[in-house]
Amino acid sequence: AQTVTQSQPEMSVQEAETVTLSCTYDTSESDYYLFWYKQPPSRQMILVIRQEAYKQQNATENRFSVNFQKAAKSFSLKISDSQLGDAAMYFCAYTPGTASKLTFGTGTRLQVTL
Amino acid sequence: EAEVAQSPRYKITEKSQAVAFWCDPISGHATLYWYRQILGQGPELLVQFQDESVVDDSQLPKDRFSAERLKGVDSTLKIQPAELGDSAMYLCASSRGVAGGNEQFFGPGTRLTVL
Fold it and tell me: Out of A3, A93, A104, B19, which residue is the most buried by the measure of CB atoms under 10 Å away?
């Protein structure tokens, strides 16, 4: 069975600084996708970034980028130039290539301070 | 911008009562998901529909939970009878297809409290 582990329950970053959230996963599949979802307080969950396992190049979306280490089964999220609006729960998630069911980690709560 | 709609946003009920949640996915999205998110944890899939057919309900407690998507559009999740351990956020999501990598769009959720 696939598992997703987020070992940082809470993180804090100052505005304009950079923070990295960690995620590891376990799977025997060769074709899969990895995601970071953001869940702001009292608002719906939204997709931040997606990585296809067969792509060696790390995905980037504006201030958000990932460090995908396939051999180590590691998938960390880097947020650059942090903003107050980045404060939220961040979930790492996995789907196999053949199905869209998401398996989530337990989340990391990110605080952004002035 | 199209969004997934859910109602009610909040529901308080007593143990042994019946509750129902409603979800309207983004138009054109064939796949619909119901997740349960217990406080402090990540969401877990309860049931997945492709059009009106159930694709995965392996984690749905079928003795008390039921879900339907009769016309392949909106969906209802029911709990009868509710138990204290059912207190959680119930999230609905939709996507265009069932293949891995499809972005899922989430609704605001229904927060259930069972007393």
Answer: A93
